[in-house]
Design a protein that fits this description.
alpha/beta, Growth Hormone, Chain: A, Rossmann fold, 29 helices, 14 strands, about 60% helix, about 10% strand, globular
Length: about 775
Amino acid sequence: MSADDRNGTPVAAIAAIALTSFGALLLELALTRLFSVVLFYHFAFLAISVALLGLGAGGVFAHLARERLARHSTRSLGSLLCLANALVIVVMLELVLHMQISAALAGRNFLMLSAIYLASAVPFFLTGVLFSVVFARAAARIPLLYGADLAGGALACLALIPSLNALGGPNTVLGASLVMLLASAAWAPDARARRRPLLALLPLGLLLIANLNGALIDVVYAKGGRHDRSRGVEYARWNAISRVEVIAHPDGARSLRIDADAGSAIMGVEPRDWRDSSDAVPTLVNALRPRGAYAIIGPGGGVDVLRALAAGSTNVTGIEINDIIVDDIMRGRYAAFCHHLYDRPEVRIHVGDGRSFIRGSTERYDVVQMTLVDTWASTSAGAYALSENTLYTVEAFREYLDHLKPDGMLAVTRWEFRRPREALRVVSVAMEALRSMGVRDPAGHFLVFSEGPLDEDGRAVIVLTKRSAFTAEEEAAARGFAARHPRVVPLYVPWAPGLNEFSALIASGDPRAFARGYEFNVAPATDDSPFFFFTLNLRQILTTPRAARGIDWRVNLGVAVLAAVLVISTAAVVAFLLLPLLLQKRSRPRSASPLLYFVAVGLGFILVEIAFVQRFVLFLGHPSHALTVVIFLLLLSSGTGSILSRRFLAQPARARWVPAGLALALGGCAFVLPTVLSSLAGLGFAAKLLVGAGILVPLGLAMGVPFPVGLSALAPVATRGEVEWAWAVNAAASVLGSVLAVAIAVNFGLTWTLACGAVAYAAAFLAMGRLRSRADQVVAESAA
């Protein structure tokens, strides 16, 4: 360490560490939102893997290049690396926006995905180099500096949602670059070095301001196609949930486009002038309940609201999760176009998660309706924390049915295919919900109608479900509706069930048994595994000819994406974390068994983190809240736990029991937490925050202990390269664990994801003994 390092001002170092950490985590979280738009939402969790890989690779590089890096003082090195990082982030943003990934993961697309993966890892690599150098040179101040690191990351969690709402996805990434310039100035050892990042602040700040409307840097390729804002896009805005555009059509109509994919028409007529000449199927429920009280989940541009009003309803409640659609579009710029539909006295619109609103409502409805609610957009909470997925579970359907009047009905419209799977799965979920409510014979509780025969993909199908059997009057109303709309085809009616998949499923009385013998996954989705749209298996995804791919193929592509990212992550881990150490003989550990401890700790932390984020999405009522609360609390409490771990260093035997206690606590949480959170769902938001803190903070404190304690156990063998290997294998386990966490959740459920985290900490408990034995053996050999 140079004199500059020894005499550096602690306050400056703390501020610089916090700013660097703030910028790195803000970038990581912003990438989840950006990837879900320009790629597919399945890629959102890629940012977690990318960040962990970069940080780990940076640590390995810092070890291998320590002699060269030692020529520079910590502060000058920090200033240079943060300045370089600010520039790299801008270049990386342009690369991500200009790389085209089509719906096929083969050949060129796989190479492009790999290029995005590696390019996005570079900023985190530079951060990893810097943090490794800082912590290695300032061992006496590690608790304080590590606390600053975690505090900066926690503040980034708080800043993410306001940044995305105010700036948008690309500009939030540019904001991370600006933060890195400020960090460069904080690291600078003198005024001259400080001048460079401060001078760069002006042009980058002006670029961000000039790009507030996306005129300079914006989406170029989205969902595999060229995204041209000049083609009818007259309004566009980002927030923490999605990117919403308004498209102007040549006939004067307007429509919403969400994350460059999903769409919804903006209704530009008065209810009295409404004439539904197409897509008549969703209006079946209006014919059966013309003057009923409606709760419409995901009303979007207002088509279901308009239909309910046109049918005669005077009580319509809409629950839309995206405030841009409600406040900026329907009640703002396009209020006159839609004739102030959302401001009518008969209409009440609430911004929030539809299921959470229904669950907390004291009102009872004649109809709870969801029509094609499938934006497929990743939330800021990251991968598979999707608001719409938890709308289509057994528990959700039971909550909807519980909030109906005695004769009310649940109306769900989905796209369907020649070989049914989506609407068929709706029936499966509803059957399981009815069975949990005591209905043993579901035959009279369903009506299923299609917009035309199922002779092609993309037919709209409505599934009507009642707690009581449909009456003769409702049968007559349904017959009359079908007579007035010749294209409407009954797929299942109790009085003439017919012979098709819907009739067979309902007649079976057991949706899980039926699903086991069906070619698609139509088993009831649950809160534990809320992946309703995943109906294909990997073989079907990879072998389906392009001409035969249905509109759901891209959604199910997430299964193939998991496999592809696992391959890329494994190759990157070997190339950038393990191989560089293997090539240096002096860095090869004598025994690999002690390193299993760090593999277990890395896997445990990331599995638990991802499982908790998903669990708390439903409890807190909004996906964005899950990110802010869960990651913020885990970062702060883990950092505090790491600082407190110094107490264990004097008596290492006590530290071994921390992962053991974690394993027991997490194992209990895995199976008890869903019930606890469900029973407390009616609490106010402030009370829910206290409950979340009560659960997460104790666990986070314990989760911050194992890694620093393990490194201290390796202190006697530090000269043999085992500390560097510990860093590398821990990072590798975290990188691969981020992919495995999603794979486990998709295939086995969130309960088992959290349970696997508990198993990982149990393995760390067992491996800790071997770690201590290895260190004691080396000490004994040295003494001899």
